[in-house]
Design brief:
With 796 residues, this protein is α+β, with helices and mostly antiparallel strands. Helices cover 27% and strands 27% of the residues. A 7-stranded mixed sheet has the order 26-30-31-35-34-33-32, with helices on both faces. The longest helix has 19 residues, at 774-792. The protein is elongated.
């Protein structure tokens, strides 16, 4: 929203400096993004008086003038305009002046006659496109004065960023209200004289509104005897400063009042309206209208139209129609002023790509109570500029009158939310200054919002206004009081926070996060041989590739792999942390959402750069990640049990935490991997995040002091058939040896042609209070060896 400071000061007697005004508006939530100077190019242009004017001796179309530029300075200027004459007051650009188009005036000699300046036209001054002659100023203009002062131009314009909820500030009046409140100065509305003549015209145009929800108010006034011409210079220059192109006196007034009051208006040529009535109704499918920009618009059901008795004449709240526009020969005017439902205007404007100044305001809400005042103000200006007479009476229909919202307000609640002490007198003055009506009942007030504040609907909105006017920058920052107790420290963290920790863990291990849609295709799930039971189909899918909610994360990660392989990737380390969805008849929503972590490894284990070897990731990499996850979240090492092939995995391994299934992992079947253009093994794991969350928060971690005494290590090699390492590890740990700190597998040897395997384990012993002796460690090691031989039948 552009705001002329000169126009603003016609509403409020605020003498604050422009920068001070800008800063105060910004702190009120109306950020001033820039201060522009639209007529800065005219700063060197002066008022001059033509004291002599004669024909050029060597050119028929040139005149040689002597111009009084003030302070006794007479300039010789050669002028080519046909309308230059002695005695005129004219704009003069002296030598050294730079005009808006970038033209720098210098001394010149035209056909032998010296010229020390330039008498300017409106186009050369950037005020309009008129170039048929020089601009002639009023007779009371004083030579030597600056042109911008004589024309009273708007020299400073603020560019205010108005947030969508503050539609009331999309006008000079709305911003003036804010300034009046901020600087504690009175607000003055523009005065106008509404001189009516003739007979009552309230029945001349009938108004019909079939659906009151689409148009809450529609009214119009009739003017007769208008002469279409250009607007007064001050109006044209003001519109130019506000970024609006001047067209004609009637159209310019509608734009002027739009900027001043924030009420969009539209002027129809009354003689072109047929049937003697206006109907506000929705379009029929396939209906068309030719709008003011010369474009024929195809309409759909739901677009709101203004019709006369025969045809559409305007797109309600967006743009008028060309068939009823004001032309040079128009004399009878029907001025429309209405309130349309914001959502309807917004939908039509977006669909047709026709955002206009009118639609921008209608979409956000317009002051219904001030509608008549804005219309009357426009009628008065039209009568003044065009000589038209205003007929008495208003053609009007208001099926949905404006009703003020009654809002509960408690000063103590405001103090609680804002964290400051508030005086009731301050609250009262602030709300009154905002235009609210207040009914005080002790500490419980009833506040009625003004008609221009559509954003005030609840107590929090009113409290926000109190804080905004108080000054959010005036509220001293204060650290909150935080209670620290064992109960608070032990409080369960949110799942969002927990998931964030898991993501940080995965990224820290070099995995790349993938984020996929929750929708997949039935064919994706079928390809992975996942069960049909429990699937939830989408009723109106966007495509066949997104017609079911995923029951596993694997389809998305495999599609990610396919895409990256197509881009030339040699190795992939992906993870996704998200929900899967399964049918659940016991739930109110009939859907159960389960948190899952999926990990995919493919191709090279490391980047192909020295000193890494060109090895591919395998099962041990995947298993190591799962074990690392459990350790990172203080859980015991998981048990990995070979399972029957799980659809798309072979071999498939179940991952157990105690007796609970944590997830599964394995290699994707080669024939399925080929479908995703994979030439190497794909290793995939899916883990239950809900179970991890539960078990992690059930663990009671205790501080363990760092060991003081050194460890003693012994290796033991076991020769056995197909016995698994897990069985041996479980046996050793189950012996309950107090000195045994750790045991793990360090080597595996299989001799060619033999079924026997040599498994070497390393046992770590340590005492918390002293250094162990070799003899006592060897004794414990021998005890372990004998137990293994006796209970498992292996050789040492």
């Amino acid at each position: 929203m552009l705001l002329s400071t000169k126009w603003l000061r016609e509403f409020v007697p605020c003498d604050a400096a422009t920068q001070t005004l800008s800063d105060r508006l910004t702190m009120l939530g109306l950020e001033v993004e820039d201060i522009t100077y639209p007529f800065a190019g005219l700063k060197d242009v002066l008022v001059g008086q033509v004291v002599e004017c004669g024909r050029h001796p060597e050119a028929d179309k040139l005149s040689v003038c002597k111009v009084n530029a003030g302070q006794g300075e007479i300039l010789n200027i050669v002028c080519g305009a046909p309308n230059v004459a002695k005695g005129q007051k004219v704009p003069v650009a002296p030598v050294g002046a730079v005009l808006p188009g970038g033209l720098e005036i210098g001394k010149a000699k035209l056909r032998g006659q010296p010229s020390h300046g330039m008498i300017c036209s409106e186009r050369e001054l950037g005020l309009s496109g008129f170039h048929e002659g020089i601009m002639v100023l009023p007779g009371d203009a004083v030579p030597g004065k600056r042109l911008v002062d004589v024309l009273d131009l708007d020299e400073e314009v603020l560019d205010v960023n108005v947030t969508p909820n503050r539609a009331d500030c999309l006008s000079v009046l709305g911003l003036a209200r804010e300034v009046a409140l901020a600087f504690n100065v009175p607000l003055r509305l523009p005065e106008y004289q509404l001189n009516e003549s003739g007979t009552d015209a309230s029945d001349l145009v009938g108004i019909e509104i079939p659906d009151p929800e689409l148009c809450w108010l529609y009214q119009g006034r009739i003017l007769e005897g208008a002469v279409i011409s250009s607007s007064p210079l001050r109006v044209r220059c003001r519109l130019l400063a506000m970024g609006v192109r001047a067209l004609s006196n009637i159209v310019d007034v509608t734009n002027y009042v739009l900027l001043e009051w924030g009420q969009p208006l539209h002027a129809f040529d009354l003689d072109k309206l047929q049937g003697g009535k206006i109907i506000v109704s929705t379009a029929r499918k396939g209906e068309r209208i030719l709008t003011l920009d010369g474009q024929e618009r195809m309409l759909v059901e739901g677009d709101l139209l203004i019709r006369d008795g025969v045809r559409p004449v305007a797109l309600a709240g967006v743009m008028g129609g060309q068939e009823t526009e004001i032309a040079i020969d128009s004399s009878r005017i029907f001025l429309e002023s209405a309130i349309f439902r914001p959502a309807t205007v917004r939908r039509t404007a977006r669909r047709l790509g026709m955002s206009s100044e009118a639609s921008y305001r209608f979409e956000r809400g317009v002051d219904q109570a001030a509608n008549t005042q804005a219309m009357n103000r426009a009628c008065a200006l039209m009568a003044e500029f065009s000589g038209a007479s205003i007929r008495p009476g208003v053609c009007r229909a208001e099926p949905k009158p404006w009703m003020s919202a009654a809002i509960r307000f408690r000063p103590r609640r405001a103090e609680s939310l804002l964290g400051i002490s508030l005086d009731k007198a301050f609250c009262r003055e602030t709300l009154s200054g905002l235009g609210c009506k207040i009914e005080e009942i002790r500490d419980d007030w009833l506040v009625q919002a003004p008609s221009w504040r559509h954003d005030l609907s609840r107590e929090a909105d009113v409290i926000e206004e109190i804080g905004r006017v108080y000054g959010l920058d005036s509220i001293e920052p204060e650290l909150p009081c935080v209670e620290c107790s064992l109960d608070a420290a032990a409080a369960l963290e949110s799942k969002y926070s927990f998931w964030s920790r898991v993501k940080h863990w995965a990224c820290g291990l070099g995995l790349n996060e993938a984020v996929n849609y929750s929708f997949v295709g039935h064919m994706d799930l079928d390809l992975l041989r996942l069960p049909v039971e429990g699937r939830i189909s989408i009723m109106n899918p966007l495509s066949a590739e997104q017609n079911v909610l995923r029951t596993a994360l694997a389809p998305g990660l495999l599609q990610n792999l396919r895409h990256n392989l197509a881009q030339g990737a040699q190795g992939m380390r992906l993870f996704e942390l998200a929900h899967i969805f399964e049918a659940d008849t016991t739930s109110e929503t009939a859907v159960q959402e389960c948190g899952r972590l999926a990990i995919l490894l493919y191709g090279q284990r490391f980047d192909s750069a020295w000193p890494h070897k060109g090895e591919d990731a395998d099962y041990h990499d995947l298993k190591g990640l799962v074990e690392h996850l459990c350790a990172a979240f203080h859980l015991p090492q998981p048990d990995c049990k070979t399972a029957a092939n799980k659809g798309h995995l072979s071999p498939s391994v179940n991952i157990l935490l105690g007796d609970r299934l944590f997830g599964h992992m394995g290699r994707v079947l080669p024939q399925i991997a080929e479908s995703f253009h994979a030439r190497k093994d794909i290793w995939l794991a899916e883990l239950d995040m809900d179970l991890l969350y539960t078990l992690h928060h059930a663990v009671k971690t205790c501080f363990m002091p760092l060991p003081v005494f050194p460890p003693v290590r012994r290796d033991i090699t076991i020769i056995g058939g197909s016995i698994s390492a897990d069985v041996i590890l479980a046996h050793i740990r189950g012996m309950g040896i107090g000195l045994l700190e750790e045991v793990h597998l360090i080597d595996l040897f299989v001799q060619q042609g033999s079924d026997e395997r040599n498994l070497t384990f390393r046992l770590t012993f340590r005492h918390a209070l002293r250094t162990l002796k070799d003899a006592e460690v060897d004794k414990v090691r021998e005890k372990v060896a004998q137990s293994l031989k006796r209970d498992l039948g292996v050789r040492i």
